[in-house]
Amino acid sequence: MVKDDHVRAPGRSSPTVRRTSPDRSARTTTSLLPGKGWWRAAVIYQVYVRSFSDSNGDGIGDLAGVRERLPYLKRLGVDGVWLNPFYVSPQHDHGYDIADHCAVDPVYGDLEDFARLVDGCRLLGLKLVVDTVPNHCSSWHPWFQQALAAAPGSHERARFHFADGRGETGELPPNNWRVMFGGPAWTRVVEADGNPGQWYLHMFTTEQPDFNWRNPAIAEEFERILRFWLDRGVDGFRIDVAAGLFKHPLLPDSADPEADERTRDSVNPLAWNQPEVHQVWRAWRAICEEYTARDGRDRLLVGEASVPTPAQQAEYVRPDELHQAFFFHLLHAPWDREHVQRVVDEAVRDIAATGSTVTWVLNNHDQVRTVSRFAGTDPVAGPARAAAAALLMLALPGAAYIYQGEELGLPEVTDLPDELITDPIFHRTGSRTGIRDGCRIPMPWSGGHAPFGFSPDDAPARPWLPQPEHFAAHTAERVLADTGSFWHLYREALQLRRTMPQFGADSIRWLDCGPDVLALTRGDGLVCAVNFGVGPVPAPVDGAPLIASGPCPPGVLPAATAAWWATTTS
Ligand code: GLC
Ligand code: CA
User: Fold this and answer.
1) Which CATH architecture does the domain made up of 1-27+510-570 adopt?
2) Using an 8 Å Cβ cutoff, are 40 and 364 in contact?
3) Ligand 1 atom with minimal separation from the 366 CA
4) CA of 91 relative to ligand 2 center, distance in Å
5) Cβ 93 under 6 angstroms from ligand 1
6) Does the domain formed by 142-201 have CATH 3.10.20.30?
7) pLDDT at position 347, please?
């Protein structure tokens, strides 16, 4: 990874650009409306609360644990923290099945712990973003329980999508939709008389009934929920399934019912990305603006809006809608120069046209970690490529999200025994494809054996998912002591982002450095190059780089390596 002698403070070297020719596309991609807002270039750290830090030894991470670790995050240099759901939930989908949106699940603490966390963040100047899940709730939610007890056609059922089945006796689901977690999107209920009755819609698990957003009661309830957390000091919300919420009003059959399930993606155009959803984001934006008008603090809405194209995604970040939407096309890109260049280009062009910035992400709690994902058939290549990709992401204009453990260089854990797998995808499909436990293993903080400081040493319970012995090489304690580690790469890059004036520019220009090298200038004076090839190439800039993702002697850019140079370019 980064060697100390290749990490230079800005201004210590004076390199000159060489071997660059006019860019292939002859295009400079620039933000049209450079705007304000702390979120535009923020780097936010995603905390999967359950797996971050366990303060009381029950083997499950909690809010008090997050608070204890805030100085670590401050030291890393992030601007803020996003917390995955910590609300009351039966945990059928680890908190994405919420039974009470305005209370902390006792396993994670209580509202006082939350208040202390808010204070802790405020004290250190860290923003605090919480998750919100408006598409569905838990089947344990009182509204759903009331709906089950009520009759067909009742106002209790109208908060969800209840419908009569097809077939002679209603034995077939109302339509043919299937879900990305596997299986049909409908479950039949037993009515009060003990007979099989209506069906309800759920785009994820059976335990996650979808709300009917055509019922105004849902919008009202979510405005109340937003205000509840805004009044408790949050700086913003991550919005789960932000392209969901509305379904086609007639709930017609899908042309390709298997596609959602097969691709594990939200591709059914009747169930996702309906035009009405934008009015919800406008209303939520107005609520945020109302709070900002009161105290001058910008609130942030960041959406998980998985839609097929960057142009469609841009619609979610129009000036009166969400501030940010995760750009997943980079996350889904293979280790391939051309592919990566294309998605970066499209993102910067389409998102910038809205006046917003791109929100980059390489890892999260739903994806195979980059160290393993980029390895392909060569496990040795994984860490080098993951580090290079991170340095590329952090060079790009816009905001970035880092998922806990990314800074430790954690690999995916792929050998959990079947009986320990908790992901509902596994239980619904019987297949390990796409299961998410492997990126949610409790964080290793210190020591040579489990629980690696995740729980107190004398904890009565073991971590909720087992940590492999090889996590010993990735503890925070170890990586902090090793200046060549992922941790120092991230920290140094975040520091450079903060201090170098080049990062004020929202434009990039491609440099042509051959088929294997992705090279760009940021504004006027920062060059970032990544070598996607298998052998070393001449560096695009003379002189030692400011920072590199691996050993990088002056004049050479080794394979699977990224580097930044400060320079003035032609
Ligand atoms: C989002 C979350 C994922 C969850 C799903 C259903 O994709 O990131 O973890 O399972 O929504 O809420
Ligand atoms: Ca705990």
Assistant:
1) Sandwich (2.60)
2) no
3) 9
4) 15
5) yes
6) no
7) 94
Which pLDDT score, from 0 to 100, does residue 524 have? 77
HEC secondary structure over 514-546: CCCEEEEEECCCEEEEEECCCCCEECCECCCCC
Check pocket membership of 366 for ligand 1, CB cut-off 6 A: yes
For 135, other C-beta atoms within 10 Å of its C-beta total 23
Q: Is 412 in the pocket of ligand 1 (CB under 6 A)?
A: no
pLDDT digits (tens, 9 = 90+) for 350-367: 998 898 999 999 999 999
Q: Which residues surround ligand 2, an ion (CB under 5 A)?
A: 54, 56, 58, 60, 62
Residue 423 CA: which ligand is closest?
A: 1
Q: Counting ligands in written order, which one lies closest to the CA of residue 61?
A: 2
Tens of pLDDT along 175-191?
999 999 999 999 999 99
Q: What's the pLDDT at 9? A: 32
Question: In angstroms, rounded to a whole number, what is the distance separating the alpha carbons of residues 197 and 192?
Answer: 9
Q: Residue ranges of the domains in the chain?
A: 1-27+510-570, 41-137+215-489, 142-201
Give the number of whichever ligand sits closest to the CA of residue 63: 2
- Which active-site residues does the annotation give? 240, 290
Q: Using one digit for the tens of pLDDT, what is the confidence trace for 20-75? A: 443 444 344 433 334 579 999 999 999 999 999 999 999 999 999 999 999 999 99
**CATH number corresponding to 41-137+215-489:** 3.20.20.80
96 lines ligand 1 (CB under 6 A): yes
Q: Which residues pair with 324 in a beta bridge?
A: 302
| Range picked from 21-30, 112-121, 307-316 for highest mean pLDDT | 112-121
- Cα separation, 176 vs 257, in Å, equals 6
Which residue is closest in CA terms to ligand 1's atom 3?
366
Classify strands 547-548 and 526-531 as parallel, antiparallel or unpaired.
Answer: unpaired
Say yes or no: CB of residue 437 within 6 Å of ligand 1: no
Distance 96 CA to ligand 1 centre (A): 6
Strand partners, 301: 237
pLDDT of residue 376: 82
Which of 387, 437, 385, 382 is closest to 407 using CA atoms? 387
Per residue in 447-495, pLDDT (tens digit) is 999 999 999 999 999 999 999 999 999 999 999 999 999 999 999 999 9
Tell me, using a 6 A CB cutoff, whether residue 240 lines ligand 1.
yes
Q: Which ligand 1 atom lies nearest to the CA of residue 424? A: 10
pLDDT at 288: 97
Q: Return the pLDDT at 380.
A: 80
Indicate the top mutation candidate among 240, 260, 331, 332 to test ligand 1's pocket, ranked by most ligand atoms within 8 A of CB.
Answer: 240
Closest CA to 297 of 63, 129, 112: 129
Classify the phi-psi angles of 193: left when phi > 0, otherwise alpha if psi is within -120 to 50, otherwise beta.
alpha
